[in-house]
Design goal:
Helix content: 40-55%
Number of strands: 6
Strand order of the largest sheet: 2-1-3-4
Oligomer: single chain
Strand content: 5-15%
Shape: flat
Radius of gyration: 24 Å
CATH class of one domain: Alpha Beta
Order of helices and strands: HHHHHEHEHEHEHEHEHHH
Structural class: alpha/beta
Distance between the termini: 52 Å
């Protein structure tokens, strides 16, 4: 885990405390398999009562964390920017390596193979949370989609056609949605339902599993003032009052559990397990091929001239 110093800095005792707390939080989540965004680190500070919940606090924390990383006091891998990434082509040193990777990654589409009724997708309002959502949904081979706020008309049309195709094949499509609990975040669920129905040409079930008021009462994420400038603020204030809450404030493990639990309610487990066990056997076969790759190469080379 790299702590690399690029700029020497002298920190006050107060700033050292912030750096040490940041490392403690990030190490705890790294042990659970999560890397955090700066926003998620911020909410950990707020929920522990270490800083107030305000834009000024967020900017101040970001400045201290940035200085701590530059000075080699915070691991560079601890905090991720999930919205800006370099995309490159995957390459392999040897053919055996890719066969070994395929062995570990091989899986069939179990929803069809096991005769499941439902065809779920998980949609999340914020791109910064897509890695956490994907980690949860990948367990069951469920597609994920980052809405990035209100979904574009192009993507909504494409989704509606997918849902229509599922229905035509006799399956039941369902969208599992996660968003902020604020005027726009609540309205986004309504918008998804309305436009999916239009483009699928029939009602599509949309299950909003977070962030909901029962979770706010249970987990007590730090509140923000509701955005009064939002065109949907009046209806929100009437229903929920003048506070709002961000999805990022929920623990990553809570988000993963919510998603996996909801997907689990859609699965007929006996047929699912039978199909999953068949995949396990095929992964074992592929792993044996990878281990014996020199023999495979020798066999192919010995037969190489027969097709010429």
């Amino acid at each position: 885990m790299p702590r690399l110093c690029y700029v020497s800095k002298n920190f006050s005792d107060e700033h050292w405390e912030v750096i040490e707390r940041t490392n403690m939080i990030c190490q705890t989540y790294r042990a659970q398999g999560f890397n955090l965004t700066l926003r998620q680190v911020y909410y950990q500070f707020v929920s522990r009562g270490w800083i107030p919940n305000s834009d000024r606090s967020y900017k101040r924390l970001g400045g201290i964390v940035n200085d701590g990383r530059l000075a080699g006091q915070i691991d560079w891998d601890f905090i991720q920017d999930r919205t800006r990434n370099v995309r490159s082509l995957t390459t392999w040193d040897e053919p055996q390596n890719i066969v070994d990777a395929v062995a570990r990654q091989f899986r069939r589409e179990l929803w069809s193979r096991s005769g499941q009724q439902w065809r779920p997708e998980v949609w999340v309002e914020k791109d910064a949370l897509i890695d956490i959502v994907t980690q949860a949904a990948n367990t069951y081979g469920v597609p994920c989609f980052s809405c990035r706020g209100y979904v574009s008309q192009s993507e909504m049309w494409a989704a509606g056609r997918r849902m229509k195709e599922h229905s035509a094949e006799g399956f039941q499509p369902v969208v599992i949605h996660l968003g902020d609990h604020d005027p726009s975040g609540i309205d986004m669920t309504r918008d998804i339902e309305d436009r999916l129905e239009m483009f699928a040409e029939e009602a599509v079930e949309v299950r909003r599993i977070a962030l909901n008021m029962d979770q706010i009462l249970q987990y007590e994420p730090p509140p923000n003032p509701a955005k009064l400038s939002d065109a949907r603020a009046a209806g929100y204030l009437e229903r929920f009052g003048d506070e709002s809450w961000e999805l990022d404030a929920l623990e990553p493990s809570v988000l993963v559990e919510l998603i996996r639990d909801e997907i689990g309610t859609l699965i007929e487990w006996d047929s699912w397990q039978e199909a999953a066990e068949a995949d396990d056997l095929d992964r074992e076969r592929l792993a044996k091929i990878a281990k014996r790759w020199p023999e495979v190469e020798a066999l192919v080379d010995s037969e190489g001239g027969e097709d010429e």
